[in-house]
Structure formats: structure tokens, C-alpha cells
């Protein structure tokens, strides 16, 4: 089936290969060998030219027997690929905050480059993935200071910091108190 749009086959192919999100909704592409259709912004592997076909609507692609991609979810109107990446990144960090995490490791698990992840995360959250991770760790440390008798050093490693100095710096930056001052204030307030 040939799509009747203002774009030629080669233009749509180029757009799909570049994963350009500004064309989402204008057309969809399907891969004959997988039976899946995607948005132009989908980050899935680039299909061979002979295996690709284009559609103007989701309905046309479904009627032709293709199913929606689980990655770019072309059948969802409210889907925002950038926010999906941000939400996936936040969920990954929350689930692994006690581990030694690097931007490269986080990006690899999300499926994009570290540079791209760092750039879009900062643009949409006004913080880096590292500062987001540190905030989660400090929040968990505050909970442990309130609810356990663990030493400050034990809390430091329990929440995923690799050194006491980085824990102390991040904690003081977020709470304006050292971990010991915070714990002392809790005792004094009782």
C-alpha cells in the first residue's frame, strides 16, 4: 500500500531512519518481517528498505495486519517518548539507588546513549540523573536516621553512597545540616 502524503517514500524512510519525533502522527511505518508498526520517532532498529511500508493512520496499519510497537506505542494518543524515557530513568534509579550507578549503566538499561539521556533528563527535570539519584539516597538516609539506630557510616553505605565524603556533601547540600546535626536535631525535638 502506498501512502498518499506530502512526503515521498524516500523522505519518509529518511525521517524514520533519523527517528525524528516532529513527524509523529503524520505517518506510521510498518516492518513486513516483524509485523509491527511504529511512529517515525521509534528508536527500534532500522529496518531494511525493502521490508518497510508506510501508513497515514494507526487504523490503516492495523487493518493491514500489523500490531503496534511496544516501544513507541503508536496507538496511544497521549504517548510522549521523551517523558517515557524520563519516567523509565526515574523508575530505574529508584529501583537501583543502592547500587553503584553510572550514567552509562543507566542509559544502557534505558536503551539510549548516555549523552542523550543526560541532556533530555536535565532539560525536562532541571537536574541531572546523578543529582536525582543523590536526592533519592539522601531522602532514604533521612528515613533511616529517623527510624533506625544504624550508625551514620552504615546509613551512608546502606543508601548506596560509595564514600562518606560524598554522602556528607550530598546530605548537607540537600538538608543544610550534616547527618549528625540532623540526627541530633531529631533527638532534641523529642
TrEMBL record:
It holds the Pfam family HTH_18. Residues 87-185 form the HTH araC/xylS-type domain. Keywords: Activator, DNA damage, DNA repair, DNA-binding, Metal-binding, Methyltransferase, Transcription, Transcription regulation, Transferase, Zinc. The keyword Electron transport does not apply. SUPFAM superfamilies: Ada DNA repair protein, N-terminal domain (N-Ada 10), Homeodomain-like. Its cofactor is Zn(2+). InterPro entries: Ada-like_dom_sf, Ada_DNA_repair_Zn-bd, Homeodomain-like_sf, HTH_AraC, HTH_AraC-typ_CS, Me-P-triester_DNA_alkyl-Trfase. The keyword DNA-binding applies. This is AraC family transcriptional regulator. It comes from Oceanobacillus jeddahense.
Amino acid at each position: 500500500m502506498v501512502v498518499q502524503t506530502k512526503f515521498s517514500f524516500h523522505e519518509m524512510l529518511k525521517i524514520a531512519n533519523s527517528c525524528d519525533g516532529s513527524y509523529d502522527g503524520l505517518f506510521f511505518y510498518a516492518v513486513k518481517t516483524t509485523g509491527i508498526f511504529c511512529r517515525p520517532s521509534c528508536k527500534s532498529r532500522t529496518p531494511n528498505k525493502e521490508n518497510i511500508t508506510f501508513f497515514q493512520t494507526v487504523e490503516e496499519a492495523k487493518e493491514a495486519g500489523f500490531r503496534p510497537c511496544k516501544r513507541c506505542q503508536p496507538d496511544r494518543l497521549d504517548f510522549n517518548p521523551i517523558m517515557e524515557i524520563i519516567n523509565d530513568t526515574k523508575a530505574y534509579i529508584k529501583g537501583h539507588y543502592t547500587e553503584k550507578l553510572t550514567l552509562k549503566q543507566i542509559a544502557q538499561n534505558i536503551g539510549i546513549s548516555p549523552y542523550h539521556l543526560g541532556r533530555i533528563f536535565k532539560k525536562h527535570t532541571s537536574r541531572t540523573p546523578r543529582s536525582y539519584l543523590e536526592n533519592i539516597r539522601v531522602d532514604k538516609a533521612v528515613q533511616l536516621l529517623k527510624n533506625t539506630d544504624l550508625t551514620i557510616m552504615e546509613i551512608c553505605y546502606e543508601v548506596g553512597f560509595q564514600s562518606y565524603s560524598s554522602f556528607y556533601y550530598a546530605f548537607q547540600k540537600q538538608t543544610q545540616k550534616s547527618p549528625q546535626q540532623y540526627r541530633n536535631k531529631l533527638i532534641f525535638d523529642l
